[in-house]
Known about the structure:
Layout: E1 25-29, E2 37-42, E3 47-53, E4 59-66
Antiparallel strand pairs: 1-2, 2-3, 3-4
Amino acid sequence: xxxxxxxxxxxxxxxxxxxxxxxxxxxxxxxxxxxxxxxxxxxxxxxxxxxxxxxxxxxxxxxxxxxxxx
Length: 70
């Protein structure tokens, strides 16, 4: 898996079928057992979110939007 160049614009998309709602669900992430990285997930409020975390575990930014159709 290649690392992303987070100094440039990126675009991420995914089709996801949820089997449950109102809980944190990771769709894709490069975090693993190490601090830092990025992740695309559904938060406990059913919003799609993408965030960046530095090596110190500090959130550098999170973007979220409403989930899909009910």
